[in-house]
Every structure is written in structure tokens, then in C-alpha cells.
Amino acid sequence: MKVSPNGKKLAKANQVRFTIEIFDFDDNTGVVSNPVMDDDFEQSTYGLEFSGSSEYLYVGEYIGTNEGNIFSIRYEGGEPPREFLIPK
Questions:
Q1: What gap in Å lies between CA 46 and CA 53, rounded to an integer?
Q2: What tens digit of pLDDT does each residue of 55-74 get?
Q3: 72-88: pLDDT as tens digits
């Protein structure tokens, strides 16, 4: 689970269900709201990190020994997340 650098978003990965969830987060009150689930992953989601600008979320997808993908996800409030596979 990660909080974005600007304190406005929280993201978590679920390795078992192959999903991530992105929430609105109030870093003053700790209130988490407005969940958006992304369940388009084919393998186990493993690891999350926000970009320094908080505009992108990077998600690792574990495929097998020494194999995996990294996705860049752009979340635009109210819109479904948009995924882009980062080339190896």
C-alpha cells in the first residue's frame, strides 16, 4: 500500500486477486474514499510506487521466476485508470 507524494491518493495491490485499488485520501484526516478497482491484470500484482508528481502509479506484475511486467497507470479523477505497459 502506498500514499502518493501529494497526499491525495492511496493505492493497494492484491496479489491473490490480481487487482489494484486507487482511493482518494485525505492526509489531514486519514479518510479513505472513492475506491476505483482495476482488475485487468492477468498475473499477480506485486509492488506499487507513485511518481514524484503523483500523476502516475507504477505497478509490478509478477509472472514467474525472473519474469514480470511494469505498468504505468494514469488516474484522472473520476475516469477509469489508463494502463500502459512499460517496454522491457
A1: 21
A2: 888 988 887 777 788 888 88
A3: 888 665 555 566 666 55
Overall pTM surpassing 0.85 (yes/no): no
Compute CA distances 35 → 25, 67, 75, whole Å: 10, 29, 12
Report the SS3 class of residue 1: coil
Residue 52 grid cell: 514524484
The residue count for the chain: 88
Q: Domain segments of the chain: what residues?
A: 2-85
Cα–Cα distance for residue pair 16/23, rounded to 1 Å: 19
What is the C-alpha separation between 22 and 57, in angstroms, rounded?
A: 9
